[in-house]
């Protein structure tokens, strides 16, 4: 492809990607939020009071930053997602660091969905990108000694302050350093990982234990899930995560899932074949190792720590590394035709988003009017869910929780309650109390 034509195609991809990010949350009935989003926005609103220690403060503080400019936590989260995508593309272009690959990855429908989410993944992705850039400089010998340890340690600590799963990056650096002990850079990875581990120990005793001394007892439990169940979820998570077109399986379990999982599985097989046949450079081996290490750790942590089933969102920080190497190989083999993958992904994403569309702006207007009428727009609210059904409802993300998520985008002071006695309070809402007074535009498939 001639340079001017490729330049125009890249510009089109950038514009299309940002348009899709915006459409993704505007054409969703609750603005691309989930039950964790409620906690994030409430924590940001409550700061400097520490609302919870279930997640690090990096993401909530980022949302708090945007409120200084008159944006609410919800709109701040959307600006943050767009800014994260822009930074990755800008940085890749400026540093000539996997620019084409970054452009192709950011345009994948799965990553468009992530950048449009009110979750911590959009924030961690650009920091993972910086981690890769720093690591590459270390491996190539462009960053050495104390300076290298400082920068790598700093980025590992920053990653942990956004998502606790960054522990897997820290552990991965240590293991990689040990396995590469004869290499000149091995001590840098080992030393940096030890600095990161020391920070985690201090963080646990000085922060988590101070605000929630029962955190470990509450969240660590041996034998949470059976191996057969986790292995099935692992396959499903990887197959959807590496499906470049459709990253969400049909929850009804219809036959279309054979195609969704099949495309993802075939893509993984093709990826392994290309890596084996074409070989990997030293940097590429590091990227793939860290990605696989993160996926493996994400799987085994489920035996002792209660997390959602593995999916494209939870795996996104780790599979980003593998996608980068994979797209680099595809560009070497297929050249300009590789752009077709992302173009088709955007097209499929647009069709899915449009066919299943809700109307967040209309729903926001309805909820805002409801809260204003009830004089609850600034109140601290509780949202009641039947205690016997709460786990099933939260996991399946059904209507009752969706209403709470929608409310939180207008008033972030929302807490989920399972206590029936709380419904006697005026500031406690239920799905019935809200839906009986307003009509919410629903998505068909999301």
Describe the structure.
The protein folds into two domains: 3-355, no CATH class; 360-435, no CATH class. The longest helix is centred in the middle third of the chain and has 26 residues, at 186-211. The chain is globular and about 65 Å long. Helix 2 (35-46) runs parallel beside helix 19 (399-408), helix 4 (73-95) runs parallel beside helix 7 and helix 5 (99-106) packs across helix 15. The two termini are 37 Å apart. The protein has 20 helices and three strands. Residues 390-397 have low confidence and may be disordered. Helix content is 67%, strand content 2%. A three-stranded parallel beta sheet has the order 2-1-3. It is mainly α and 446 residues long.
Percent helix among the residues?
55-70%
Give the topology string: H per helix, E per strand: HHHHHHHHHHHHHHHHHEHHEEH
Please list the strands of the largest sheet in the order they lie side by side.
2-1-3
In total, the number of domains comes to 2
| Relative strand content | under 5%
Low-pLDDT parts are 390-397
Number of helices: 20
Secondary-structure content class: mainly alpha
Mean pLDDT: 90
List descriptors.
446 residues; mainly alpha; 3-stranded parallel sheet; 20 helices
Compact summary:
The chain is mainly alpha-helical and 446 residues long. The chain is built from 20 helices and three strands. It folds into two domains: 353 residues, no CATH class; 76 residues, no CATH class.
